[in-house]
Every structure is written in structure tokens, then in C-alpha cells.
Amino acid sequence: xxxxxxxxxxxxxxxxxxxxxxxxxxxxxxxxxxxxxxxxxxxxxxxxxxxxxxxxxxxxxxxxxxxxxxxxxxxxxxxxxxxxxxxxxxxxxxxxxxxxxxxxxxxxxxxxxxxxxxxxxxxxxxxxxxxxxxxxxxxxxxxxxxxxxxxxxxxxxxxxxxxxxxxxxxxxxx
Length: 174
Known about the structure:
Elements: E1 2-6, H1 9-18, E2 25-30, E3 37-40, E4 43-46, H2 47-56, E5 60-65, H3 71-77, H4 81-85, E6 89-93, E7 101-104, E8 108-112, E9 133-137, H5 140-154
Parallel strand pairs: 2-5, 5-6
Antiparallel strand pairs: 1-9, 2-7, 3-4, 7-8, 8-9
């Protein structure tokens, strides 16, 4: 299955349906990360609440992003101690990351133009959202190599020869 998903349909399909369905692990790779909110019942909550619930249910979550999030994200992050205390939540910064992808249980991959922001993936009004596109696939010939590549980024395989090392906040090979 390969499915093209556009604009606000990304929110419903990926944020509401696919991400909560993760059972073993969820990997999110994004260049930009902001204090994205999602609809829960009649109110809006930080997306970090979704990640915290997944971690509490035993799902391992990896978040790989290119720059430090803003103050609102950090403030909300502190509201979810499980994200700080649990070994199931890992967050890595790499200034070279420009990829936007979500891997779910090693079975599905969403490859997209959208960053992990309200305008990209979140619950923003359609007239305020970015124009975004993405492809959801469960085809092993796409999911497996993407997963291996993201894992190599996460494990610091490229850190030793990286030319942005001087500005990297946390080289993984040290």
C-alpha cells in the first residue's frame, strides 16, 4: 500500500490514526519542531501528551530534529515527566537533519514535506496551515532502508566526518 496524503488530510490520517496505533516504537524525524497541538475531545492539547501516552503504554519513541525547539515546546515538555524519566523516550539533535519522516513499528513510513509543527502537521485551521504533501507506505522495500538510514543517523554514524561538528550541540560519537 502506498497512499498520497495532502494538506489537512495529513492531520487526520497520520496524527489521529497512525501515530496512536504504534505498538512497539515510533520514530519521528523533522528539521523544525514547535509546540504543536492536537485535538482531544473538545480541547486542544500538546502533541507531547500523545507521545507521553505512547511511552506510558510501553511504546519506544525517538525524536530526531535539527534545532532546539522554542520556549513553549520546552515548557510543555516539562509537563510530561515520563518524557524526561523514561528510557523509552529518546531525543537527539542533529543540525544536518532536513528529513521529515515518521516510522511506525518498522511496518509503516510516512515521508513528508511537513515539519513537526502546527502549520505542518497540527490542528491548525486549513486557511493557516502550510501546503504539505506526504506518502504513507507499508512497502518493505521503502520502509526497511529508511529505517536503517534513520537508525544510522540516530546512532551517530556520520558524526565523525561531519563538517558541522563545531555547531553541533551534542555529537553522538563522543
